[in-house]
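Page 42, continued from yesterday. The earlier attempt failed because a stray header line got pasted into the input along with the sequence. Redoing it now with the clean sequence only.
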Amino acid sequence: MDMGVVIIAVVAIIGGIGYDALKMRYKYQQLASGKGVDKLEQEIAELKQRIATLESIVTDKPYQLKQQINQL
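This time it went through. Structure tokens are written below.
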């Protein structure tokens, strides 16, 4: 294998790992400073609403009837 290709691959791998490390550090700094807490709380509230919607769909009688018909 050509040494140039190996060097390019190693630099790309190290660069990718460094980029991910910096991205994670920035994310944890935001959480530690309290800036990310509001965003996470909003996301949790949205996910709870989506779960409630999905639960209402799954427990709906026509949906259950359709599932039983499909199983036959």
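Notes: Residues 35-72 form one domain.
Reminder to self: strip header lines before submitting.
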